[in-house]
Amino acid sequence: MSLLSATELSVHFGGIKAVQEVSFSVEEGEVFSIVGPNGAGKTTIFNLVSRIYDATHGSITFAGQDITRIATHKVAELGIARTFQNTELFERETVLNNLLIGCHIHRKTSWMEEIFFLPSVQRQELSFRKAVEDVIDLLDLQSYRDQVIGNLPYGVRKMVEIARALCLKPKLLLLDEPSSGLNPEETDDLSFWLEDINQDLGITVIMVEHDMNLVSQASHRVMALADGKLITIDNPQAVQSHPEVLRAYLGD
Ligand SMILES: Nc1ncnc2c1ncn2[C@@H]1O[C@H](COP(=O)(O)OP(=O)(O)OP(=O)(O)O)[C@@H](O)[C@H]1O
Ligand SMILES: [Mg+2]
Predict the structure, then answer these.
(1) Are the C-beta atoms of residues 59 and 45 closer than 8 Å to each other?
(2) Atom of ligand 1 nearest to the CA of 210
(3) Which residue, judged by its Cα, is nearest atom 7 of ligand 1?
(4) Which residue's C-alpha comes closest to atom 28 of ligand 1?
(5) Which of 242, 158, 177, 226 is nearest to 19 (CA)?
């Protein structure tokens, strides 16, 4: 059974058909990339999966459950975490606090328990801190943990956003252009982190990405889109040499 399946997914904004009848499945354990020129519908697919947008037509299944119309807050609870094309962090908070906020979604205690800071709340707080420290270690963020986001270089912020998503202990991680704004060295590092996230943590990854080297290195399969439509789903080499993919990028 696939971890995520989209069937004939479409979304229209007035006259704009941002995504048109796109079907794809992502297997558990896969790194699946989505490529395509600007405006192809890549981010829109993430917004459909994370329930920021309502599909006009079609369906999405995650781990056997139809999630096409579930409430937005349920998405993270089910185990889907994401990053955004432009990082969305709390600028005035430290790295540590941003990551602790990321854990919030897993809070299982009631407000009554929290007011009295009962043992259950204390245990939960400890387990959040442990999860956060594990992710800080994993992504080598120790030297930044007490720094305010607004003072950090862009490359570090991008990693903090990935770290925050990982604090949710997701089954599926959606990364929207993780390498944009990174220098070549940071992009190389990202490729190693992705391998760790996928292989050591066993997290399935869907990545929207323009850097074809990173896509080739990191992905098992690639889906190419243009103008909201599916061109092909194949291995990275085959997608890169697909005539329609080349035409979409280069024009006729
Ligand atoms: N909320 C919205 N309202 C109207 N149009 C939208 C909305 N969201 C996306 N679109 C349109 O849908 C199309 C696909 O946009 P999308 O952001 O998915 O592209 P993308 O493939 O992520 O491009 P990029 O590589 O530039 O990030 C574009 O024409 C965009 O203008
Ligand atoms: Mg986009």
Answers:
(1) no
(2) 25
(3) 13
(4) 39
(5) 226
> Cα(59) to centroid of ligand 1, in Å?
19
Ligand 1 atom closest to the Cα of residue 36 is 21
C-alpha angle 192-155-145 in degrees, rounded to nearest 5: 90
Per-residue model confidence as pLDDT tens digits over 127-171: 888 989 999 999 999 999 999 999 999 999 999 999 999 998 999
Q: Does the pLDDT value for residue 107 go beyond 80?
A: no
For domain 1-79+170-252, say whether CATH 3.40.50.10790 is its number: no
146 CA to centre of ligand 1 in angstroms: 35
Is the entire prediction scored with pTM above 0.90?
Answer: yes
What are the sequence ranges of the domains in the chain? 1-79+170-252, 89-168
- Which residue minimizes the CA distance to atom 3 of ligand 1? 13
Q: Which two tokens stand for residue 11?
A: 């979304």
The mean predicted confidence, pLDDT, of the chain is 93
Residue nearest atom 27 of ligand 1, based on CA coordinates = 38
| Mutate which of 12, 42, 53 for ligand 1 pocket (most atoms within 8 A of beta carbon) | 42
Rg of the chain (C-alpha set): 19
Residue 210 is classified by DSSP as S
Task: Record the tokens describing residue 199, joined without a space.
Answer: 């292989």
d(CA 128, CA 239): 41
